[in-house]
Amino acid sequence: MAGITIDKVEKMYPGGIRAVDKVSLDIRDGEFLVLVGPSGCGKTTLLRMIAGLEEISGGSVAIGGCVVNEVPPADRDIAMVFQNYALYPHMTLRRNMAFGLELRKVPKEEIDRRVTAAARTLGLDELLDRKPKELSGGQRQRVALGRAIVRQPRAFLFDEPLSNLDAKLRVQMRAELKRLHRSLRTTTVYVTHDQEEAMTLGDRVVVMKDGVIQQLGRPLDVYERPVNRFVAGFMGSPPMNLIPGRVVGENGHACFEGAGLRLRLPALPPMGTEAVLGLRPEHLSDRPPAGPHAPLRLRVSAVELLGDHQDVYLTTATQEALVGRLGARTNVREGDETVLYADLSQVHLFDGRNGGHRLAREAGA
Predict the structure, then answer these.
(1) Containing domain of residue 125, as a range?
(2) For 261, phi and psi rounded to 5 degrees?
(3) I need a surface site. Which of 37, 187, 222, 335 has the fewest CB within 10 A?
(4) pLDDT tens, position by position, for the chain (365 residues)?
(5) Count of C-beta atoms within a 10 Å radius of residue 213
(6) Overall number of domains in the chain
């Protein structure tokens, strides 16, 4: 196993296109780190530079303390699992998992031992003589994992490995990956655009946008204290409600005013400040919370029943769209006007200008 150090790494493409912009990152030995962000944010390019599949335009990548900028991918002692399984269709599972070791002239007895152990770990031991076409998508992905495991690399690199699976299989494979990492404790870098995968898998999460790291931290810290409007709106499904407005005075108190709503918060920046108020859907409820709260009169535009809860789409008096997450048996119907309560202890405030950074002092800080 080995840690990975990324120091001011950048990637420039012809025409001055900057895909990765001076990214620095220390990935700890044995850590499961997730790179997450929208398409085009640079996460896959960064992963491919670690693997050696993309040339680095500037900066350095070190694996286990050794700079590998000029080291070919085959000599970096890493294993990569791709979105498409990249299995050899004419080979059995056993040969698919063993082939890389055969190329490296590993003794046959050692190959058999590693393949058998990996197959047992992944629940594939009954399937080793089948070919890929005889397997389900989840089984094929486990074979791709097994092929990586038998290498016994210093690090695993995953490039959106679950995106081709259906929803149920993705959940199963997430649990499988988590269990596998606990067992192997191999340094792992995982790329996804799925916030749920990032939250459930990562020891730490790196949120990227336009080739730049926006925030790095434990999943719950990133979710609960986003550093800017982009992270607040990206992490979470449905995303955080973001309401533009400003701080105004009311009877000697400071209030947030925006989208036809007026909220008196326990702490606010100076009056006149342009601000964006953030409130997650689960912090809008049909009953007043125990702490500070404010009633909001809203109109229901749509309701999505999702089993144990429902996502309720709402509009304010100025047609600003909001989402609330309510209990499945909460009685709301499309077209109704309703009152929901905002939990003011969970409010976030972001600068209305200058990139939308988190304001230093706010309710719930």
Answers:
(1) 4-230
(2) -110, 150
(3) 335
(4) 689 999 999 999 998 899 999 999 999 999 999 999 999 999 999 999 999 999 999 999 999 999 999 999 989 999 999 888 788 999 999 999 999 899 889 999 999 999 999 898 888 888 999 999 998 888 888 898 888 889 889 999 999 988 877 888 888 888 888 988 998 899 999 999 999 999 999 999 999 999 999 999 999 999 999 999 999 999 998 999 999 999 888 777 788 999 989 888 877 777 778 999 999 999 999 999 988 899 999 999 999 999 889 999 999 988 889 999 999 888 899 999 999 999 999 999 999 987 799 986 444 44
(5) 21
(6) 2
Check if the beta carbon of residue 168 is closer than 8 Å to that of residue 137: no
Are 208 and 322 within one domain? no
Q: Is the dihedral of CA 142, 206, 36, 236 positive or negative?
A: positive
The sign one gets for the Cα dihedral 155, 207, 283, 237 is negative
Residue holding tokens 């859907």?
A: 281
Query: What CATH number has the domain bearing residue 287?
Result: 2.40.50.140
- Same domain, yes or no: 166 and 17: yes
Side chain identity, residue 17 = I
Evaluate whether residue 152 is within a structural domain: yes
Chain centre to alpha carbon of residue 232: 12
Residue 126's contacts (CB-CB under 8 Å, 6 or more residues apart) are: none
Round to whole Å and give the CA distance between 19 and 210: 7
| Sheet order of strands, 253-258 included | 261-264, 253-258, 241-250, 274-279, 348-351
Does one domain contain both 247 and 186?
Answer: no
> Quick one: 60 and 24 in the same domain?
yes
- Please indicate, yes or no, whether residues 270 and 207 belong to a single structural domain of this protein: no
